[in-house]
Write a structure and sequence with these properties.
The complex is a heterodimer of chains A (about 220) and B (about 400).
Chain A: E1 4-17, E2 20-33, E3 37-41, H1 48-55, E4 63-68, E5 71-72, H2 78-87, E6 89-92, H3 104-114, H4 119-132, H5 148-160, E7 166-170, H6 178-193, E8 197-202, H7 205-209, E9 213-218, E10 221-223
Parallel strand pairs in A: 3-8, 3-9, 6-7, 7-8
Antiparallel strand pairs in A: 1-2, 1-4, 4-5, 9-10
Chain B: H1 2-15, H2 17-53, E1 59-64, H3 76-85, E2 89-104, E3 107-116, H4 120-123, E4 128-131, H5 136-140, E5 145-148, H6 150-156, E6 166-170, E7 174-183, E8 197-201, H7 202-208, E9 217-222, H8 228-243, E10 248-251, H9 253-296, H10 298-306, H11 311-348, H12 356-382, H13 386-390
Parallel strand pairs in B: 3-8, 5-7
Antiparallel strand pairs in B: 1-9, 1-10, 2-3, 2-6, 2-9, 4-7, 5-8, 6-7
The chains are: A alpha/beta (about 220), B alpha+beta (about 400).
Chain lengths: ~220, ~400
């Protein structure tokens, strides 16, 4: 349980806003081990989203190093970053971000498509993932025929389907009512107890407290 | 991946039917006009060639000039000389013709009378509704026998068989001829209207109508395995040596057909080129809709990138979408163009000669347009920043 899956070493991420340099992350070093359930917390503008984007390889740091699953991501090109997003990271977003024209099943199949799985393999794996989140009976529905909780379950199934190293959830309960949000959180806890590394990005203190470890960000730095 | 991309392309088209239909229209009209012009051009050329070919594509006719007829060069012996000296000639048939009145009782009409050898019927593949052509002996003995063209027979013998009956031909005096055959109706050629012609033996004609040994025309049949135009060229060289270029004129359906084909070919290629420009305009429409599509689906592109789609994959998706659009437009255009060609050829009573080359050309061009005009929007999509795209509303 001490094997490091995410390691940030003195990571900075600066943006240029007009003439001003915004230091979204300003020298952050963290280490997350396999199987941990970690919450990244902080008020808006603290650098949470920037950190999530960096861990999820949607963005690259201005300086510093990020290792994902023991692999240094510095200097990787777009295609190589896409590969890491596909195989090592499962994203869950606040607004679900499902593809509206595709059925639940096709949504879950999409990452498998980019992983180059065969037609049979894709279908089997995707159905299995939907079963895991309890939505096997809704797989032929489109997102607009699903409730918020169901949409988020589809999104979780999609995040799980390539068996990623990290589940990266950005305010996953933000668009849900308390009860549904609770169920989604329970699902994350279950997945974590099965050995998955879960990172929850939230500004909600109560939510964060349910994780095993909290990393507080403020003004782009980790609070002690 | 290709199949999924094609499915996605159709999904996208369903999502904006009107817009898709309008931008498809540009390609459809472009392809349809290219296909229609080439097909109608081919059909026109084919139909012209066909009507020329009635005269026999293996035939060459030589007409001595008026001044040469009495010079002694163009007599019956010239036939054998020509066949001996120019390679590739099967037969040379001398023939004379003029206009006369032909009568049966009260019915009479003005026709062409041709004096020909008995081989003439076989060489020109004539077909008969009654009887047949006259025999070699008829010619030798200068018998007064006659073969009628179908219109002549119909006009003079509306209700009865003509063979075995007699008709009179008027030149200075009336002479009666025994009818031995009636021709099937046959399309007119440039030199002869078969239906309105009567044929009598060459020697009979010489005796009755002219009193010189001059010959009015020679019908040359080119031997099998020889190119008519080449043989015709050799005949031309040969005659130029003997009587000079002014001493004769020569006519061959084959060279005329070739010329007609060249003219229609050049003309339809030129028109197709203009139509191809409209395809280019259609391509700009495709680029337009693809740019709109990319802008509209920025969020989708962001999601796909987050799920692990590499820039190549995104570019592929949008290129396939553009290609699917243009190929669909190409297919619809071919269908519309063929339909249009069918309508036009049907109206003009030509036989439809579908230009498959134009189908391939149109599809190739559509594909080129799809790749060429789809490339920039697809590149644009693939280069979107994933975070900006994800946060795009």
């Amino acid at each position: 349980m001490t094997e490091s899956v995410i390691r940030l070493e003195d990571v900075t991420r600066y943006y240029l806003m007009g003439e001003f340099v915004v230091k979204a992350l300003d020298g952050v070093s963290i280490d997350i081990s396999r199987g941990e359930f970690t919450a990244i917390m902080g008020p808006s503008g603290s650098g949470k989203s920037t950190m999530m984007n960096l861990i999820g390889c949607l963005d690259t740091p201005t300086s510093g190093y990020i290792d994902i699953d023991g692999e240094n991501t510095a200097g990787l090109n777009e295609a190589e970053l896409a590969y890491i997003r596909n195989r090592k990271v499962g994203f869950v977003f606040q607004q679900f971000n499902l593809l509206g024209k595709l059925t639940a099943l096709d949504n879950v199949i999409t990452p498998l498509l980019y992983a180059g799985a065969s037609v049979r393999e894709r279908k089997q794996t995707a159905i299995h993932a939907l079963e895991r989140v309890g939505l096997a009976d809704r797989m032929h529905h489109r997102p607009n025929e699903l409730s918020g909780g169901q949409k988020q379950r589809v999104a979780i199934a999609r995040a799980l389907v390539n068996n990623p190293t990290i589940l990266l959830a950005d305010e996953p309960t933000g668009a849900l009512d308390t009860r549904t949000g609770n169920q989604i959180l329970e699902l994350f806890e279950e997945l974590n107890s099965e050995g998955r590394t879960v990172i929850l990005v939230t500004h909600d203190r109560d939510l964060g407290m349910r994780s095993h470890r909290q990393i507080h960000l403020r003004d782009g730095r980790v609070e002690a | 991946m290709l199949i999924e991309n094609i499915k996605l392309a159709f999904n996208a088209m369903r999502g904006s039917k009107m817009r898709t239909a309008l931008s498809l229209l540009g390609i459809v009209i472009g392809v349809a006009s290219v296909v229609a012009i080439l097909t109608i051009g081919d059909s026109a050329s084919k139909s012209i060639t066909d009507s020329i070919a009635v005269g026999g594509l293996d035939m060459v006719t030589i007409y001595p000039s008026a001044g040469q007829r009495s010079s002694g060069t163009f007599d019956e012996a010239f036939s054998d000389m020509l066949r001996r000296d120019v390679e590739g000639i099967e037969t040379v048939l001398p023939q004379n013709s003029s206009t006369v009145r032909v009568r049966n009782g009260k019915e009479s009409k003005s026709v062409s009378v041709a004096g020909v050898l008995s081989d003439y019927g076989d060489v020109l593949n004539l077909e008969y509704s009654e009887g047949g052509f006259f025999e070699a002996m008829d010619n030798i003995n200068r018998r007064q026998v006659i073969v009628l063209g179908s219109t002549v027979a119909k006009d003079l013998f509306p209700d009865q068989a003509a063979v075995g009956q007699y008709v009179s031909l008027f030149r200075n005096q009336a002479k009666s001829y025994l009818i031995v055959g009636v021709l099937e109706s046959k399309d007119a050629t440039f030199s002869l209207s078969y239906n309105n012609t009567v044929f009598i033996p060459y020697n009979t004609y010489s005796q009755r109508f002219i009193r010189t040994s001059g010959v009015g025309a020679y019908v040359v049949k080119v031997a099998e395995g020889f190119d008519t135009i080449e043989v015709s060229d050799h005949v031309t060289e040969y005659l130029d040596d003997i009587v000079g270029t002014d001493g004769y004129s020569i006519f061959s359906p084959a060279s005329l057909a070739e010329m007609a084909e060249q003219i229609t070919g050049t003309f339809s290629s030129f028109l197709a080129l203009i139509a191809a420009i409209s395809l280019l305009v259609g391509g700009i429409g495709i680029m337009n809709i693809m740019l709109v599509s990319v802008a509209e689906r920025t969020k989708e592109i962001g999601i796909r990138k987050a799920l692990g789609a590499s820039p190549n994959v995104i570019r592929g998706q949008f290129l396939v979408e553009a290609l699917t659009l243009t190929l669909l437009g190409g297919m619809l255009g071919i269908a519309l163009g063929s339909l249009l060609s069918y309508a036009v050829t049907n109206m003009l009573d030509w036989s439809l000669h579908l230009s498959y080359a134009s189908f391939i050309l149109a599809m190739g061009f559509s594909m080129f347009v799809g790749i060429f005009f789809g490339w920039y929007p697809a590149m644009k999509a693939s280069r979107l920043d994933p975070i900006e795209a994800l946060n795009y509303e």
